[in-house]
Amino acid sequence: MFVYNIKVNSNKIFKLIFVLILLISLAITGIAIYKTFIKNGGVTVKSDDVYTITSNNYTNVLKAVHDNLDNYIGQKISFVGYVYRVYDLKEDEFVLARDMVLDSRNQTLIVGFLCHSSNANDFEDGSWVNITGEIKKGYYHGDIPIIEITKIEKASKPKDYYVYPPDDTYIPTSSLLYNNP
Fold first, then answer.
1. Distances (CA, A) of 181 to 84, 103, 104, 107, 177
2. 149 falls within a domain
3. Whole-number CA gyration radius for the chain
4. Does residue 173 lie within any of the structural domains?
5. I want to staple 95 with a disulfide (CB 3.0 to 4.6 A). Which of 84, 109, 122, 166 is the partner?
6. Do 29 and 78 lie in a common domain?
7. What's the whole-model pTM score?
């Protein structure tokens, strides 16, 4: 039979536990600062530059602007989408839309920004356009961002016209419908 006699130095154990707790605290603080101030939903907070929205960051930007509208008022953006209208929009409004793929069966949902332009009627439903505009606060069944268009021109349909849900945390509520028989 072997007997071990271990002398425990409480000072060293206390220092080791203290250092481990300190390192874990610093790591958590660093992650929180990164997510709050640097990442900010995949977009930068308002600047004087025109922020270009791409197929890769489209839904992250859309979600960030809808979730924190006051932070983005006055931000200039530019992106490509197709003109989509619903029956209750004004004549000078349309949604600049993209199709977001919801699942592996390629079911899609139309997502986009409501846009305002004095020459909105010059563009047919389904036509692809490139717009530049400024984010304003508007109202459509509640407060929402509206893009006040400063420049609009016809565009061709991009190769990557589908967009995908924002980040890994997005859970589409419509997925509840897919599970019903």
1. 31, 17, 18, 17, 9
2. yes
3. 24
4. no
5. 84
6. no
7. 0.65
